[in-house]
Amino acid sequence: MSTERVREILSWYGSDNPGVRANLARLMNTGVLAGTGRFVILPVDQGFEHGPARSFAPNPPGFDPRYHVELAIAAGCNAYAAPLGFLEAVAGDYAGEIPLILKLNNSDSLSKGQEPCSAVTGSVADALRLGCSAIGYTIYPGSGARNTQFEALRALILEARTAGLPTVVWAYPRGSGLSKDGETALDVVAYAAQIAAQLGAHIIKVKPPKDFMEQMEARKVYEKYRIPSDTLRERIQHVVQSAFNGRRIVIFSGGEAKGTQELLAEVAEIAAGGGFGSIMGRNAFQRTKEEALQLLRAVMEIYLKASTPQ
Q1: Of the residues 180, 205, 207, 210, which is catalytic?
Q2: Architecture of domain 4-304 in CATH?
Q3: Which of 150, 183, 203, 300 has the fewest CB within 10 Å, making it most exposed?
Q4: By C-alpha distance, which of 173, 205, 204 is closest to 187?
């Protein structure tokens, strides 16, 4: 049963049909964080994006697609996200046990020196066939190929909406238009969240922003209006504000593998800054199952505490 908080969040998506809103509700009413409006999602697209050994050798059971969906279910995650092949390998055996998100575009790390632009590797029809609750798509603001990605995403969002599926957008600034530091600069991450919201994303995934400014024009505005940015908590608040003043769900990636205490400290700042949750891949599935379950439950405890009135 939906809580007042879930109903409030659903009210932000008033132009969507009942199917989209029902699937958003299912995502919010599943797992340990059910009813809180917070999310912990397990995404496993790294095998496609980075290669099998780089992704799964640290914890060899991860070579088996079943390992990941079982981990997400055991941990009490809101959802499990993966490309077509991984979901086809598990959707039938675990039907209805956890919401699935089909990642509709992916790229590999073999090609070098080109503008980042992921290939469409799945379809809305695939998502429906596999019983998914949402589709996922990556955009690279800053890439010379960004317009192609934006146009493809808009078409997919329209098709998915018609079929009753919400869209999760991975908004990862990258490409020749940005420096390496600029990919996680506060002004750029906030801009990426705004772009994803404007394109029609229901849930937006970005990286935690660093205390860095990429665009000189933006720096002047941040300084003029004294937008706080010293702490991660303040930067999270600004990114959430940039997604329609917090009226779009914004979740944050776990990023590169890091130590447990560092990761939990980061999650605590995300929760305190009003972030809606974490989407955590490598930091979970590259650990043993026992260690991953402990970590994911610790992350969920942080969001539960942040959702409880003090």
Answers
A1: 205
A2: Alpha-Beta Barrel (3.20)
A3: 150
A4: 173
